[in-house]
Amino acid sequence: AYDATPYVPQDADLQTLRHAAAGCQGCPLYRNATQTVFGSGDASARVVLIGEQPGDQEDRKGLPFVGPAGGVLMRAIDEAGIDPADTYVTNAVKHFKFERQERGKRRIHKPPNLREMAACRPWLAAELRLLEPEVVIALGASAGKALLGSSFRVTKERGAVLPMPSLDGGGEPAGGALVATIHPSAVLRADDAARAEVYAGLVSDLKVAARLLR
Ligand code: URA
Ligand code: SF4
């Protein structure tokens, strides 16, 4: 089975994890991507934001949320009253999955499947174990499923304060809270008439997380 576990060093700090993740071959996604995009932010961050997987620009730059979706996210975080310096951003899957447009150069994002998400979960578990955040924010369906299982529905669970589950097995809570919301790319995909409302919904969910930090 696909599994990152053999690549994840025990008792490592974030820097050591990041270095090891650069060589991960736990699933086939490393083959076509440029590089592993590990999480980024301060080890003492109180808030961890989890996306789906790096996009085109993240794949090129090696950093999460530095493309258009990241722009929306940073604006929404700020508007919700969360200090970006208090956040660590990462993804459920650490390599960019894409399809090449026929004869074109454009790389089209493809959602990771459950096997790839399960394979990559040990990296996310290791990050969360070290960071012990007060609040985890799941951005979209893939992040929600990576944390809560395949029955997670973002439309149903968004904007609520949930107990953060442990990713280390056993199912006992990790301590800390979990708030789910939509993925910021949903704001970019929305048509002109709906975009402001979709964005306001994202900010409103992020405010639920912000209130937990007071
Ligand atoms: N979308 C994500 O889910 N993560 C990123 O890092 C960029 C875009
Ligand atoms: Fe490893 Fe995750 Fe990349 Fe797959 S997606 S190769 S499990 S880092």
What structural keywords apply?
alpha/beta, Uracil-DNA Glycosylase, subunit E, globular, 214 residues, binds uracil, binds iron/sulfur cluster
Structure at a glance:
By secondary structure, this protein is α/β, with parallel strands linked by helices. The protein has eight helices and eight strands, in the order αββααβββαβααββαα. It has a single domain (about 5-210), classed as Uracil-DNA Glycosylase, subunit E.
Account of the 3D structure:
This protein has 214 residues and is an alpha/beta fold. The protein has one domain (5-211): 3-Layer(aba) Sandwich (Uracil-DNA Glycosylase, subunit E). Helix content is 38%, strand content 17%. It contains 8 helices and 8 strands, in the order αββααβββαβααββαα. It has helices spanning 14-21, 56-61, 68-80, 114-131, 141-148, 154-157, 185-189, 192-211; strands at 40-41, 47-51, 87-91, 98-100, 107-109, 135-139, 161-165, 173-181. Strands 1-3-2-6-8-7 form a 6-stranded mixed beta sheet, with helices on both faces. Strands 4-5 form a two-stranded antiparallel ribbon. A hairpin with a 6-residue loop joins β4 and β5 (107-109). Uracil binds at residues 51-55, 58, 64-65, 67, 69-70, 91. The site of uracil (URA) has 12 residues, from α3. Pfam families: UDG. Keywords: 4Fe-4S, DNA damage, DNA repair, Hydrolase, Iron, Iron-sulfur, Metal-binding. Residues 38-207 form the Uracil-DNA glycosylase-like domain. Belongs to the uracil-DNA glycosylase (UDG) superfamily. Type 4 (UDGa) family.
The count of DSSP E runs of length 2 or more, i.e. the number of strands, is: 8
Broad structural category? alpha/beta
How can the largest sheet be summarized? 6 strands, mixed
Categorize the overall geometry.
Answer: globular
Domain Uracil-DNA glycosylase-like: 38-207
Family: Belongs to the uracil-DNA glycosylase (UDG) superfamily. Type 4 (UDGa) family.
Protein name: Type-4 uracil-DNA glycosylase
Pfam families: UDG
